[in-house]
Amino acid sequence: PAQQRQALAGFADGKVDVLIGTHRLLSADVNPHDLGLVVIDEEQRFGVQHKEQLKNMREQVDVLTLSATPIPRTMQMAMSGVRDMSLIMTPPPGRLPVKVKVGEWDPDVVSAAIRAELARGGQVYYVSNRVTTIDDAVDRVREAAPEARVGVAHGKMSAQQVEDVMLEFDEHEIDVLVATTIIESGIDNSHTNTLIIEDSQRLGLAQLYQLKGRVGRGRTQAYAYFMFPGELPLTPEATDRLMAINENQDLGSGMRIAMRDLEIRGAGSLVGAEQHGNLSSVGFDLFTQMLGEAVSEAKGEATPEAAPEVNINLPADFYLAEEYLPEVDKRVLAYRRLASATELTDVDRLQQDLENSYGALPLAGRNLLDRARIRIRCQRLGVTSVSLTSGRIAYVGIQVPRAVALKLKERRAVIYPKTRKMSYPFHTGREELLPAALGVLEEVGGDDEGEE
Length: 452
Description:
Rossmann fold, Aspartate Aminotransferase, domain 1, six-stranded parallel beta sheet, about 40% helix, about 15% strand
């Protein structure tokens, strides 16, 4: 306490320039002399109330948050422009990705994993996140590998006891450390290269990823076993979390994990205290658009005039199939690029990038891109609606040049110049709907993409 008082007094007087601490820094008795920057390491470990307190400082203070796996709300803030984001994608030299194995708890697998690690002179983390049953976990470890020296660490032990155990582990006097998730952050032991988690279905996605990061911190191949009880059915959310951790094993995959977490849990409330939630009542696209406009307004930026809305009612499938583009974050990025495209070249570039990386687009994917082209063409021509009615494609708000009108009428198009409407025959079975609708707009618009 005396040391704390001395540090806080120095911080209040301006004699201490940088104050490093835990959540204790959010206490009411911390009165900085002239606070300019708050750096939050392991941001995902700070709760909602802590974030609310930090928010009160933000008008005058710069805040830098660091995290391997940002929580969904933070992720959404960064993606929508409320906060800036930068990614460090380069791993330390020589670092190897951790090999992940997800499956039912099996004593033979546990025994083999522990013995393989001990045989190469390493150590093991065994995570059991219930203090009340941690002694049972110790018994299971001793049964699986009787020759291993086992230590225990959990939050209900005194600080001195935990420190003594960690020092013994660091000095290699313990082979297997049975612990709760207190090892999640701040532990850096290059000798420990096997992680076994029982009841992994109870942990959050960010926790699983953080725990995986405790091993493989040297140049040795590391292994992480995420186990769940075979007798209990997994919830859909738990299944999604374990699949996500299994699918994203590359170095620097925290961004993809966070994107998946955003999908599983929802974006949450950006202005309230909820860490997660859903946007089903508004819809993600509309929410993002409204948020972007609000952010621009708050920054004093001129918001570009919204393009006129086009109602496209053409019965077809419009999506990027999971089989075609399996990575969730790449799929989301492609949809975002398409939604924000204002030029036909933007759509062409996206199609080229997709086909170069994943091969020829399936029909639903081609339809999706053609619908974007129809939207852009319609906005330029002033067309407000494109629909299929009784075997004819109907355009509302279209103004057809005389030379083009004569050609279209030869193909049985019906044009109403006064009401700016046109219907054009569509031959089902002989042509695809989206290219046919787009072809008429291209003909009306002429070679010049910007021609009205």
